[in-house]
Design a protein that fits this description.
By secondary structure, this protein is an alpha/beta fold. The protein is built from nine helices and twelve strands. It folds into three domains: about 5-85, Orthogonal Bundle (Arc Repressor Mutant, subunit A), CATH 1.10.10.10; about 90-160 and about 275-305, D-Maltodextrin-Binding Protein, domain 2 (3-Layer(aba) Sandwich); about 160-275, 3-Layer(aba) Sandwich (D-Maltodextrin-Binding Protein, domain 2). Helix content is about 40%, strand content about 20%. The strands form three sheets. Strands 3, 4, 5, 6, 7, 10, 11 and 12 form an eight-stranded mixed beta sheet that branches. The protein is elongated and about 80 Å long. The two termini are about 45 Å apart.
């Protein structure tokens, strides 16, 4: 759809005032008001609720505004991609992952992707989970792999899976005597209250997985007294393998987890605790065919761990 002078409408929405938008655009207020009236007439809908001050978008206005923002992004992306082709540059795909997720996922996915897109250069942005959303908001990355964000004002996401969360510790830990529970058929941990005075290695309290675990502790009336915080799941698992306490591991990381022969594995709660994983990107952003292929590969790879229907 062709929209004449879309920047006029976008400026009105940004300023939330026709008069202020007219000043910014160096136009007269009557001219801008006439533009808005003609635009609404051509679309057959009311875009702005004029009974509010400052102006407020109607539902139709919100939809039209999102369309214009997306169209503007696509236009800029097209110009950039055409320039890269003209300059014979390799297209770039910027992907955000946590260090642990990158280590457990990318060795399986990246070779498959490069077989389909040998000319696309993948740029990895490894950062703690809370920073990944900020990178997506700032358009630094095309998308990231993380838990669904709480604030969806600037971001959107596509669900990938619900994966089980395992409780792991060294097989020789005194609490695990006679508790033979392996990775192939993990049993529920008998009583989370047994962990109250044990060292528990956790991700930071504000992170999605940690919040789920603290909520689970609360449901079971558990108040852990000895918590060691780390931002890297690999660190937590390595410490557990050295008899330094209990840790939690997402099921998808099992195949690339070291020291499996030393560790016992249990599910948490009944039904077993799961955590969501999603592909997150800028709202109204553009996903190139290469990005979409990478996301499809992620979803296919993780389908074996998806517990959504359980």
């Amino acid at each position: 759809m062709f929209v004449k002078n879309p920047e006029y409408f976008l400026t009105i929405v940004k300023e939330r005032s026709i008069s202020k938008a007219a000043e910014r655009l160096y136009l007269s207020q009557p001219y801008l008001s006439q533009y808005l009236a003609k635009l609404e007439g051509s679309l057959g809908v009311v875009l702005l609720d004029r009974s509010h001050s400052p102006l407020k978008l109607t539902p139709a206005g919100e939809l039209f505004h999102a369309y214009l923002e997306r169209q503007g992004f696509l236009d800029r992306q097209l110009v950039s991609d055409l320039r890269d082709l003209q300059n014979k540059k390799r297209p770039l795909l910027h992907i955000g992952v946590s260090p642990w997720r990158g280590a457990t996922l990318l060795p399986d996915i990246l070779p498959l992707f490069e077989a389909q897109y040998p000319d696309v250069q993948v740029v990895l942005h490894e950062a703690p989970v809370p920073e990944l959303g900020e990178l997506a908001e700032a358009n630094v990355i095309d998308f990231c792999v993380m838990q669904p964000p709480g604030d969806l004002s600037e971001l959107t996401y596509e669900p990938v899976m619900q994966e089980r969360i395992f409780l792991v510790a060294h097989r020789d830990h005194p609490l695990l005597q006679g508790q033979d529970s392996g990775w192939d058929a993990p049993r529920p941990f008998p009583d989370l209250r047994l962990l109250e005075h044990e060292r528990i290695i956790m991700l930071p309290a504000g992170w999605r997985l940690a919040r789920l675990l603290y909520n689970t502790f609360s449901v079971h009336s558990v108040e852990p007294q000895n918590i060691l915080v780390t931002t890297n799941t690999t660190t937590a698992i390595n410490l557990a393998a050295e008899k330094m306490g209990f840790a939690f591991l997402q099921e998808s990381g099992v195949p690339r987890t070291p020291y499996l022969d030393r560790l016992a594995c249990f599910t948490v709660g009944e039904p077993p605790l799961t955590c969501p994983l999603a592909v997150v990107y800028k709202k109204n952003g553009f996903l190139s065919p290469a990005a979409r292929t990478f996301i499809d590969l992620i979803r296919e790879f993780y389908s074996r761990y998806d517990r959504t229907s359980e």
